[in-house]
Specification:
Meiosis-expressed_gene_1, MEIG1 protein, two-stranded antiparallel ribbon, single chain
Length: 96
């Protein structure tokens, strides 16, 4: 049952309505930075492309721990913040 439900969600192919660049760092911006480094818009696109229900996160911080790129190599991330202040303005925030 579970795989059918996630399959339906993935087929829905949700597209963002608008986008803007992050102005200041937050937990959400940190996670978006990690998804975008791995070549995805955000968690929604990652789940659609990789057909997964869950993204591995650090329990202490809630930051993304591991992502699989489109070429199937993995990115591993630290518990601590990785998106420096000078990188924040490069992060795109998608509005659905």
């Amino acid at each position: 049952k579970k795989s059918e439900v996630s399959g339906v969600m993935a087929k829905a192919d949700i597209k963002p309505k608008s986008t803007y660049h992050a102005k200041k760092w937050s937990d959400d911006v940190e996670n978006l930075y990690r998804f975008q480094q791995a070549g995805y818009r955000d968690e929604v696109e990652y789940k659609q492309v990789k057909q997964v229900d869950m993204v591995e996160c650090w329990p202490e911080t809630g930051f993304v721990k591991k992502l699989q790129r489109r070429d199937n190599t993995f990115y591993y991330y630290d518990k601590q913040r990785e998106c420096e202040d000078k990188e924040v303005h490069k992060v795109k925030v998608y509005v659905y």
